[in-house]
Amino acid sequence: MMKVTIFGTGYVGLVTGACLAEMGNHVVCVDIDTAKVERLKRGEIPIFEPGLESIVRRNHAGGRLDFTTDAAPAIAHAEVVFIAVGTPPDEDGSADLQYVLAVAGTIGRHLDRYAVVVNKSTVPVGTADRVREAVAVELAARHAAVEFDVVSNPEFLKEGAAVDDCLRPDRIIVGASSTRAVAVLRKLYAPFNRNHDRMVVMDERSAELTKYAANAMLATKISFMNEIANIAERVGADVELVRQGIGSDPRIGYHFIYPGAGYGGSCFPKDVQALERTAHSYGYEARLLGAVEAVNRQQKTKLFELISYHFNGALAGKTIALWGLAFKPNTDDMREASSRQLMEALWSVGAKVRAFDPEAREETHRLYGDRDDLVLCEHASDALHGADVLAVVTEWKAFRSPDFAAIRAALAKPAIFDGRNLYEPATVEEAGLAYYGIGRGRSL
Ligand code: UGA
């Protein structure tokens, strides 16, 4: 059993806290948001994430997981202090470190015995040094001779599978220059390493870059496939066949080569941009990353272009049924979601939207409020009523095998705009609907 404190109860902080408590550690989660802390104490989870609520409740009831706004006792309690607060993009796309450094300062003000300070937030290369400095400045200000180490331990969880990813990580990256700190983390992560050692130990800067490199690589795969899709539809090829054709090469693999309406979420768009900014600040122009981003930006306009083409540009007064609002299935997260770009483009030309999402309706309402050109529907079939066409933006399992005859009957101008290539064009067309996919042998 180890004593752990985690600053930040967002996705990463809360999931990490719950999983470390599940392994028998005593975890205290600190957040400055009093209302959120109160809700968490009552077992109310502010986000939709499969399995998270039960693991939080179980460990809270078991006395292994506490929530507080009071930093001082939480720091005094800890052998390991995680920093898992947000790093939102600055105006120029670089990561804003003010929250990370503020927590580092707080740690320095209250630390009174050796602890390992762990950066879990996705932070630019060099942040471990800045955190070390911020802690040291505060310790020096109160003449405290307390030893500490700073470690970079980036998180690789996926929204929608976060608890599972955290309990069964592919790898545990530990960037540290102190053997004492590595020993502490080895002890903390021992339960995750039982079958084979997943810990990869390296220096702090390499660990920080590993996180960005992983996300940038995945984003690159997606933008690459979207580029192939755009070529496919011009040359009259089907990207879905091309995808299967190349995925069979184990060096390429089937994962993360699904073309679609662009990638969203809180990580890829932000991290690709931040890495590009970091490179720029060191005098290197990361041209590939710039292209990955540009392709994605363009891809997010794709569904709107297809719909506009279908209506010969006359979209005013038309109603579009939209299935899927979240940036991907199994989450209610709308950050950088492709649905937002599509809805906003449709509204800007006077079209209306009837939208359904299994989880993200509340979040959509929070973002856009009540407006005449948006109806949030309780069921997928409700969204079709009174709509002209259907656009599918998120690949929720519930959308995979719909009743095409019913869709055709409900729509005024039967057509499906399949932003995730969920359907076979022939099946949709046989049911009497026009089909538009991403890169499926159809040229605009
Ligand atoms: C991503 C990474 O996958 C995680 O490994 C990483 O830990 C996390 O960022 C992070 O940095 O915290 P996440 O943002 O939750 O996780 O979502 P993904 O499952 O990676 O999906 C991202 C976007 O790419 C979605 O919009 C999805 O629809 C899109 N996507 C994914 C495609 O368009 N095609 C694909 O083949 C795969």
UniProtKB/TrEMBL annotation:
Q: What EC number(s) does this enzyme carry? A: 1.1.1.22
Alphabetical UniProt keywords = NAD, Oxidoreductase
The chain's coiled-coil residues are none
Known InterPro entries for this protein? 6-PGluconate_DH-like_C_sf, NAD(P)-bd_dom_sf, UDP-Glc/GDP-Man, UDP-Glc/GDP-Man_DH_C, UDP-Glc/GDP-Man_DH_C_sf, UDP-Glc/GDP-Man_DH_dimer, UDP-Glc/GDP-Man_DH_N, UDPglc_DH_bac
Q: Which Pfam families match?
A: UDPG_MGDP_dh, UDPG_MGDP_dh_C, UDPG_MGDP_dh_N
* Annotated catalysed reactions: UDP-alpha-D-glucose + 2 NAD(+) + H2O = UDP-alpha-D-glucuronate + 2 NADH + 3 H(+)
Q: What class of enzyme is it?
A: oxidoreductase
Q: Which SUPFAM superfamilies match?
A: 6-phosphogluconate dehydrogenase C-terminal domain-like (SSF48179), NAD(P)-binding Rossmann-fold domains (SSF51735), UDP-glucose/GDP-mannose dehydrogenase C-terminal domain (SSF52413)
Q: Outline the extent of the UDP-glucose/GDP-mannose dehydrogenase C-terminal domain.
A: 321-425
Concerning NCBIfam families, the annotation shows: NDP-sugDHase
Which PANTHER family does this chain map to?
Answer: UDP-GLUCOSE 6-DEHYDROGENASE TUAD (PTHR43750)
Descriptive protein name: UDP-glucose 6-dehydrogenase
Q: Which organism is it from?
A: Rhodanobacter panaciterrae
